[in-house]
Design a protein that fits this description.
By secondary structure, the chain is an alpha/beta fold. The protein has helices at residues 2-31, 65-78, 91-100, 114-118, 146-154, 180-189, 204-213, 242-246, 268-277, 283-288, and strands spanning 54-60, 82-88, 105-108, 121-136, 143-144, 171-175, 199-201, 217-222, 230-232, 234-235, 253-261. The protein folds into 2 domains: 54-129 and 255-288, D-Maltodextrin-Binding Protein, domain 2 (3-Layer(aba) Sandwich); 130-253, D-Maltodextrin-Binding Protein, domain 2, CATH 3.40.190. It has 10 helices and 11 strands. The strands form 2 sheets. Strands 1, 2, 3, 4, 6, 7, 8, 9 and 11 form a 9-stranded mixed beta sheet that branches. A two-stranded parallel sheet has the order 5-10.
């Protein structure tokens, strides 16, 4: 009986030792393939998804369309949960929309006037723009002074031959009242409310098309919008370009600005859009759209 009990006890002890040995040997084996302190979770090469969501409404200047369109495309590519809209209604409407709260962000192609700033609005410059003086491609005029541009705009100069061009009447094509481009041009050239317009059109593209269609015409347009259907003349020997706008040598230039209402808290998405558009990363987008980054 004692012999049987001893055999049973020995078997139990052998089973216990086998179980302990199996448990202890498995732990080092599992850990041996990872360095100390390393996580067993696989590393991900994908960037963290944006948690931003919501809608951001912008609107105003038609001159900023290419720049703001580039901002919107790039921003929404990184933030798929955000819908940013743009309504090209002119700078005046953009400023009013920001003031009345119908827009999250107003877009203007001119600086705020003193009464607008005093009325509780803030302007944040996101790019610069030269206002190009454009003539029909057939016009032989290559350069104009500010005084000559003033005379052409006010009707004091009525024939292109007076400024070295062909014997043809001068036709001024410009923007409608309330346009930021018009306000910028008239303010800089000092012809406010004195221009003799033959046509007043509601978009920058329409002005370019109007000048392209009429050999007698001249007008003004955002540098970013000018194409090869018209000719941009130099102003006092300086061409409108990124370099001459940024260094201030081209005299007819203006800011592109975001307009927001003081005291009205922007949504997280709207603030993120402004932060993105005014960051160094946006400079390439601005240049590719034909405008000029703000000097840092």
């Amino acid at each position: 009986m004692k012999k049987i009990f001893a055999i049973v006890l020995a078997g139990i002890m052998m089973l216990s030792l086998a179980a302990c040995g199996g448990a202890s040997s498995s732990t080092p084996a599992a850990a041996s393939s990872e360095p100390a302190g390393a996580s067993s979770a696989p590393a991900s090469s994908e960037p963290a998804a944006s948690t931003l969501s919501g809608k951001v409404t912008t609107g105003g200047s038609t001159s900023v369309e290419k720049v703001v369109g580039a901002f919107i495309e790039a921003f929404m590519a990184e933030n798929s949960g955000v819908d940013v809209t743009y309504d090209p209604t002119g700078s005046g409407a953009g400023i009013t929309g920001a003031a009345e709260g119908t827009l999250d962000i107003g877009l203007s192609s001119r600086a705020l006037k003193d009464d607008e700033a005093a009325g509780g609005l803030t302007a944040t410059t996101f790019a610069l723009d030269g206002i190009a003086i454009i003539v029909n491609s057939e016009n032989t005029v290559e350069d104009l002074t500010l005084e000559q541009i003033k005379g052409l705009a006010t009707g004091e100069i009525t024939n292109w031959s007076e400024v070295g061009g062909p014997d043809m009447p001068v036709v001024l094509v410009g923007r409608e009242a309330g346009s930021g481009t018009r306000d910028g041009f008239e303010s800089i050239v000092d012809v406010k409310d004195a221009c003799k317009y033959d046509q007043e059109l509601t978009s920058t593209g329409a002005v370019i098309a109007g000048v392209a269609a009429n050999p007698n015409a001249f007008g003004y347009a955002s540098l970013s919008a000018v194409d090869d259907t018209v000719k941009a003349v130099t102003v006092e020997g300086v061409a409108a370009s990124e370099a001459t706008v940024q260094d201030g040598t081209y005299k007819i230039q203006r800011p592109f600005v975001f307009v927001t209402k003081d005291g009205a808290e922007l949504s997280e998405a709207a603030q993120a859009f402004i932060d993105f558009a005014t960051s160094d990363a946006a400079s390439e987008l601005i240049v590719n759209a034909g405008a000029v980054p703000v000097a840092k």
